[in-house]
Design goal:
Order of helices and strands: HHEEHEE
Strand content: 5-15%
Number of strands: 4
Oligomer: single chain
Largest sheet: 2 strands, antiparallel
Number of domains: 2
Helix content: 55-70%
Distance between the termini: 75 Å
CATH superfamily of the largest domain: Large-conductance mechanosensitive channel, MscL, domain 1
Structural class: mainly alpha
Number of helices: 3
Shape: elongated
CATH architecture of the largest domain: Orthogonal Bundle
Radius of gyration: 33 Å
Amino acid sequence: MAKDKTKGLAAEFKKFIMRGNVMDMAVGVIVGGAFTAIVTSLNQDILTPILGIFGGIDFTHLSVTLGSGETAPVLAYGNFITAVLNFLITAFVIFMLVKGINVLNDRLTKKEEEKPVAPTTKTCPYCKTSIAIDATRCPNCTSMLEE
């Protein structure tokens, strides 16, 4: 009986993993990790030195020692500022990507919507029923239709 539960659990897990949204999420996590490394490098290697020129401050070394002695805790708020900048840059870049994708998607869907669909039916002027567009006689009231 335990073997059947294992097969059922394994089959259910396989079905879960093979669903498209799980695979999309996995790809998103991997790409997000790589993107975070790029943004962190952009912040630490490019933006922080440029900001250091204007303010003369490197955020990563900013800290406050809470207490005295060698074992006193250190509040490294510079690292926090760097993390906040990384987050803001990441959020802004993702916002711009999503905005660009939405604009592109809107342009593509508008082109598809603009194509008018040719009518396939018309209304009989005598009995007001819907009939085929190429009909010459109404199948309901048998009236001759004028073109």
